[in-house]
Amino acid sequence: MSDEEHHFESKADAGASKTYPQQAGTIRKNGYIVIKGRPCKVVEVSTSKTGKHGHAKCHFVGIDIFTAKKLEDIVPSSHNCDVPHVNRTDYQLIDISEDGFVSLLTENGNTKDDLRLPTDDSLLAQIKDGFAEGKDLVVSVMSAMGEEQICSLKDIGPK
């Protein structure tokens, strides 16, 4: 045997995978898919039959769930596509800091302080106005592939 010591540097994070494989032909409208490395909501799927020896192909049109950019991809229907694990969690808004971060109350009573205000102007205005008026606000946070962003807002009444 060898007397050498081997050191391996692990760059992977422990825990669940960010995506799972799913056959392209089974992905439907309003589902999720990874296009060009971005998690997208599928808004349009069309399947085309190709020639004698070719595969049927699926043409996906998706909207990035974080940036709202439109992305397209064409995949043979028998091949696997990556589908992101998308989670939606509701948190109560506690505070908004000057540097654009929000303080949120989690289910177990802890605070979550690592989220920025959303980039969507209308949602941003709704959150700031509601908070300034002293309303109790609940924000929905969408998370996928290691990213998180506030995606919607609910008003649960005045404080």
Strand order of the largest sheet: 9-8-7-10-11
The biggest sheet, with number of strands, parallel, antiparallel or mixed sense and barrel status, is: 5 strands, antiparallel
CATH top level assignment of the largest domain: Mainly Beta
Estimated structural class: mainly beta
Report strand %: over 45%
- Annotated CATH topology of the largest domain: OB fold (Dihydrolipoamide Acetyltransferase, E2P)
User: Which spans of ≥5 residues are poorly predicted at pLDDT below 50?
Assistant: none
Q: Please report the distance between the alpha carbons of the first and last residues.
A: 70 Å
Give me the number of helical elements. 1
Query: Approximately how much helix is present in the residues?
Result: under 10%
> From the 3D coordinates, which CATH architecture of the largest domain would you assign?
Beta Barrel
Classified in CATH, the superfamily of the largest domain is Nucleic acid-binding proteins
Radius of gyration: 21 Å
How many separate structural domains? 2
**What's the overall geometry?**
elongated
Mean pLDDT: 84
Secondary-structure element series: EEEEEEEEEHEE
- SS elements, strand count: 11
